[in-house]
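User: quick one
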Amino acid sequence: MGESYFTRVFELTSKIPAGRITTYGSIADYLALGSARMVGWALNKSFGGETFVPAHRVVNRKGELSGRGHFPTPSMMQELLEQEGVIIDNNKVKDFDKHYWNPSEELA
DNA sequence: CGTTTGACGGTCC
DNA sequence: CGGACCGCCAAAC
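Assistant: Done. Structure below.
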């Protein structure tokens, strides 16, 4: 079975610790996908999967919850993050660098 | 099969 | 600091 973009993105995203966040670009860079858009594209398919993928822990470079509109409910992404102790202010992650999780440093 | 569209990111102005 | 522009690559049209 060939590993697709989906599999790699799902596995890495699932390794993000609760209460931590990372960016599309960081994932794309770590997996050498060549484009951060591929990460969002793959995560969009994650909802149909059998395994839950914590896609809410992935935000854009500015710390904005740009993917909230793709969740079952727009408020779900923010609620999940707040449940994990991440403060959301105006659709943006507060203390972004404090919660940031870099796969290249902490996982590698 | 050419064009448009993204859950993005970096540069330029 | 923010808006305009381009590069990125796969899918949808």
